[in-house]
Structures are given as structure tokens and as C-alpha cells.
Amino acid sequence: MAEAQNLPAGSTTAGSIAVAAESTVATRMSAPPSFDVADFPVPHGREEEWRFTPLERLRGLHDGTAIATGDGVRVDVEAPEGVTVETVGRDDERLGRAGTPVDRVAAQAYSAFEKASVVTVPKETVLTEPVRISVYGQGGTAFGHQLIELGAFAEAVVVIDHTGDAVLAANVDYVLGDGAKLTVVSIQDWDEKAVHVGQHNALVGRDASFKSVVVTFGGDLVRLHPRVTYAATGGEAELFGLYFTEKGQHQEHRLLVDHNTPHCKSNVAYKGALQGDNAHAVWIGDVLIQAAAEGTDTYEMNRNLVLTDGARVDSVPNLEIETGEIAGAGHASATGRFDDEQLFYLMARGIPETEARRLVVRGFFAELVQQIGLPDVEERLMAKIEAELEASV
């Protein structure tokens, strides 16, 4: 598997694989963050943040022509005792604190949602069972907003499960109090025609720990924008992700970790597998270490496994450092096909080629799946990976 680490701007590999590293993270957006959709021009595909996205497949989410319908999505929340679950209006002052929309679709979602779901875990509450949020697409168009808030020293695991068929633009906010620990598993298991565009904002308190696991399988087009900022020193963030991109699918993950506070940590690891004609995966990993963020320790990695001809990967790690007083910083991107030595090793021991390929892919994803920590979810995802591989045989 060919690896590119700390490449100069614009570096690429041949064929269907593109890898690049750039600086000037702050200049990658065509407009400053804003809650007002009017502050963002309608994208045309030439903008840096939209150049990989097939705008014609967004169903009008980017240009204002998408209209919410009554049969958009249904949201159900199953929460353990002690957790507060609310449906609130747009004027609730808690909404929007974790981050500001950074593109026109996120601003459109914030401007258009009518009700938001708010899940609150009180301070010092340690949940022994996960909060499960089901977002089920019912065939229409919807705009949504969710807030997950943990009080000081609270601990929780939240699973957000997207299924069905919908055109959805939604923002999710995670607010962690001091010393809180939150693990979020966001699963995109949409039907084949679904479109999902979302911005995930995490605000990490003093000595708090945030772990995000993003899993993307289904949908015609999925474009997610996880973002992390720190409210005080000592915060830690881990962003894990896995995606399996099939024929004709477009799956795009654009991350930003904004180290704006001293002595915080972050670790990013995303892995993807692709198969089929016009399967297209995009991974943009931006890490910004501001001048005030002395003592930062950060690393980001993206690896992709191309299973068939006709698939394309664009992998762009970006690291911008404004201070020399850091503990460590680095990034890596690797994209390639099956390792012939691995296959030969397995086949030499009597394992058929088809089964050997399955074992390689399972091993490729297993480390990230184990980060979830929920056996039922892990088993479901590994079964989904098996089903995807079975379909390719």
C-alpha cells in the first residue's frame, strides 16, 4: 500500500488515487462561518470545499430549492433513566453553542429546522447503557438539529443510527462539560437513494474526552463534516471512521480539529474500502494548531483499500501549525489495492482466494470497529461488511 506522509501541496499518485497535503487550512472555506444562509454564495463546484462534491446529486440542498416535507425523517430516542430528552424550538438558547455552520448546506439546515432534539446527561452521571437515537428516513426531505450535552464529569455512549430513505441536511452539536467523557457512534446505513449532508460540532471542556466513531455504508451521497474545538486546556479528542463505498456512491468526510487552546490532544484515524464503477470516496483531514495552542499533541491518518477497478479515492491531509511549542504533530495518507503477500500467505495455507480477501478486509476494519465498545453494534457492522463483500463475489 503506497503511503504519502507530509507531502508538499498538490502531490498526487497516478491513476485513480489522489493524495495531497496542504497548509492554509483557514483559507479553504469560501465564506466565514455563519448561521445565516445568505452569507454563503450558492456553490458552483469550483470552490475548494465543493470541488469533489457532485452538486447535481444534492437534490437542491445547496441552492435553496430543497423544501422540507412532512414525510422527511422520524427521530426516536431511547435513553436510560436519569437522562433528559426534550424537543425544543428554534429559540432555545442552548442550540448552536458547539459550532457555527461552515458551508451553505449547514447554514440552510440551521435556518430551516423547526424542532430540535436535546439529550442532556446531568453532571456526575455515569451511564451504564447507551443512549440510542434512531433517525429513520420516510422518503421525504428534512432539515434537522440535535444537541447532546454532558454535564461536568458525566460519562455516556450515544449511538445515532440513520436508516431508510430521505434527503436530509442536519447539524449535530456535542457539548462536554469539564471532565466529561462522551463516545458517539454515528451510523449512516441509508437506502441506496438517500442523500445526507451533516455538520458535527464538538466543544470539549477542560480535561474532557470526546470519541467519535463515524460509520458510512449506504446512500447515494453522504457528506459529513465533523469538527472539534476546545473550551479549555486538557481536552482530548479521538475521531475514528470507516466507510465502504459501493458502485456509484459518493461518500465524503471532511474533518477539522481546531487546536485553539493549550495542552490538548487529538487523534484521527479513518479507513475506507471501495468497490465498483464510479465508487468515489473523499477524505479531507484538517488540523489547525493556533498560536495560542502550545503543548498540542496531534496525529491524523487515512487509509483506503481499493477492491476493484473503476473506484476513486481523494485523500487530503492538511496540517497548519502557528506555534513551534508543540508536543507533536503529524499526518499520513495511504491508498492501495490488496497486499499480494497477504493473499499469498493465506492461500498458501489452503484458504480459497475469495475467503482470503474477506479476511484481509475484515482485518483492515477490525481495529476501528473495536473502538465502538458495544458488542451488538460491532457485530452488526462486521455483518454489514461481510454482506458488502459477498455482493462483490
Give the secondary structure arrangement, pairings included.
Elements: E1 2-4, E2 17-19, E3 73-78, E4 84-89, H1 104-112, E5 115-121, E6 131-150, E7 155-176, E8 181-188, E9 195-204, E10 209-216, E11 221-230, E12 236-245, E13 250-259, E14 265-274, E15 280-289, E16 297-306, E17 312-321, E18 328-336, H2 340-347, H3 353-369, H4 375-392
Parallel strand pairs: 2-17, 5-6, 6-7, 7-8, 7-9, 8-10, 9-11, 10-12, 11-13, 12-14, 13-15, 14-16, 15-17, 16-18
Antiparallel strand pairs: 1-18, 3-6, 4-5
Helix pairs in contact: 2-3, 3-4
Count of DSSP H/I helices = 4
Secondary-structure content class: mainly beta
Low-confidence stretches: 1-24
Major sheet attributes: 18 strands, mixed
For the terminal residues, how far apart are their CA atoms?
22 Å
Radius of gyration: 20 Å
Query: Which percent range fits the helix content?
Result: 10-25%
Sequence of secondary-structure elements: EEEEHEEEEEEEEEEEEEEHHH
Question: What average pLDDT do the residues reach?
Answer: 89
Family: Belongs to the iron-sulfur cluster assembly SufBD family.
Domain SUF system FeS cluster assembly SufBD core: 138-364
InterPro entries: Fe-S_cluster_assembly_SufBD, SUF_FeS_clus_asmbl_SufBD_core, SUF_FeS_clus_asmbl_SufBD_sf, SUF_FeS_clus_asmbl_SufD
Pfam families: SUFBD_core
